[in-house]
Design goal:
The protein is α+β, with helices and mostly antiparallel strands. It folds into two domains: about 1-95, no CATH class; about 100-340, 4-Layer Sandwich (Deoxyribonuclease I, Chain A). The chain is about 40% helix and about 20% strand. It is built from nine helices and 14 strands. The chain has a seven-stranded mixed β-sheet, covered by helices on one side. Strands 6, 7, 8, 9, 10, 11 and 12 form a seven-stranded mixed β-sheet that branches. Helix 8 (about 230-250) links the parallel strand 9 (about 215-220) and strand 10. Helix 3 (about 55-70) runs antiparallel to helix 4 and helix 5 (about 125-135) crosses helix 6. The chain is globular and about 65 Å long. About 45% of the residues are buried.
């Protein structure tokens, strides 16, 4: 009787192990296929968008799995994993990018503009060091997100800095976490981008016209919510839609070159980035071969996402695109030099 029970138990274990051996790999490969192809339909849902934003990382994981399986002569599994890696890479390669400026600099009637974009982090306690980053960048336009109150105070009091960047959007009521814009040239907002200050739609959305001598241009700054929850994902997506509306209703009718800067909380393959590019008719300035992203700053490629960026319309060239270390922040900053066409 005991031998019969042991035989039955052994048969059950064998059947269970056979089921696991057969179906777990199927489930793993199904998940890998869906994850690596999620960038094709990132708006389908929150989970799909999270996977879409990780297209390059998932491609690397799939590539490693492919190599391991092929070395073990598991050709079918290795082939599937290799296909997933290719699909994931296409999610990065096929996204629209701005052209490189001819000759590495402004040419013809182009107008050179240098933009510094930094998510400072509201809890940052190294404002003096961040101030040095702003000095060293020698930017024409500085966009600061989640600005701590100490840095806001420095910006108001610092005569030399304000002498080089005397204009922008830095009201006295600005407090911790504020989005601030400093510019070398006068900026205007109002109903038709002619008023004395930047129009404000939400705490994270600014729109303005910057009157650079020899060629004005428009600037839109946005910072949609991080998609760390379903509700924040939806709120951030709605912010992107409002930004697209501002582009179509207020910026494009001016006929001026347009620059968009912000922390999209989305990599180029994510929904927000794809939606902003298609809806506003813009392109990411981050070059394909610049492997470094901006968040989290302590990480390294390929696990550092390119969520902070400057976007431009076709016809605007990119002279240079670099990341800069920002003390006290979990984001790296971005310095982009643009060759704007004449209005």
């Amino acid at each position: 009787m005991q031998e019969l029970d042991e035989s039955s138990s052994s048969a059950l274990r064998g059947g269970w192990l056979a089921w696991v051996h057969r179906w777990v790999p199927v489930g793993v490969f199904t998940a890998l296929v869906l994850a690596c192809s999620a960038w094709l339909w990132p708006g389908a849902g929150w989970v799909f968008d999270l996977a879409a934003g990780l297209a390059p990382q998932l491609a690397v994981v799939a590539g490693v799995i492919s190599v391991i399986l092929l070395l073990r002569r598991r050709c079918v599994g290795g082939g599937v994993a290799f296909g997933c890696a290719v699909v994931g890479l296409l999610g990065v390669v096929l996204q629209p990018r701005a052209d490189v400026a001819a000759g590495g600099g402004p040419s013809g009637e182009a107008v050179g503009v240098r933009v510094l974009l930094v998510n400072v982090a509201a809890s940052n306690r190294q404002s003096a060091e961040v101030l040095n980053i702003i000095y060293d960048a020698r930017a024409d336009v500085v966009v600061l997100l989640e600005t701590p109150s100490e840095l806001l105070g420095f910006l108001r009091e610092d005569g030399p800095l304000r002498g080089g960047l005397p204009y922008g959007w830095l009201p006295e009521r600005a407090s911790t976490g504020y989005t601030a814009v400093l510019t070398r040239w006068p900026q205007f907002g109002g109903e038709h981008l002619t008023g004395p200050a930047s129009a404000t739609l939400t705490d994270g959305l600014r729109v303005m016209r910057i009157d650079r001598p020899g060629g004005a241009f428009t600037l839109l700054v946005l910072h949609p919510d991080s998609p760390r929850s379903l509700s924040r994902w939806r709120a951030g997506n709605a912010e992107v839609e409002r930004a697209i509306g501002m582009v179509q209703e207020r910026l494009r009718p001016t006929g001026l070159p347009m620059v968009i800067a912000g922390d999209l909380n989305s990599s180029p393959s994510g929904y927000r980035s794809q939606r902003l590019c298609s809806g506003a008719g813009v392109r990411r300035t981050k070059p394909l071969m610049k492997l470094s992203g901006t968040w989290p700053a302590w990480s390294v490629w390929p696990f550092r996402l390119a969520i902070d960026d400057v976007l431009v319309e076709p016809g605007t060239g990119v002279i240079s695109w670099e990341t800069v270390s920002v003390p006290g922040s979990d984001h790296a900053g971005v310095v982009v030099e643009l060759a704007l066409p004449e209005p």
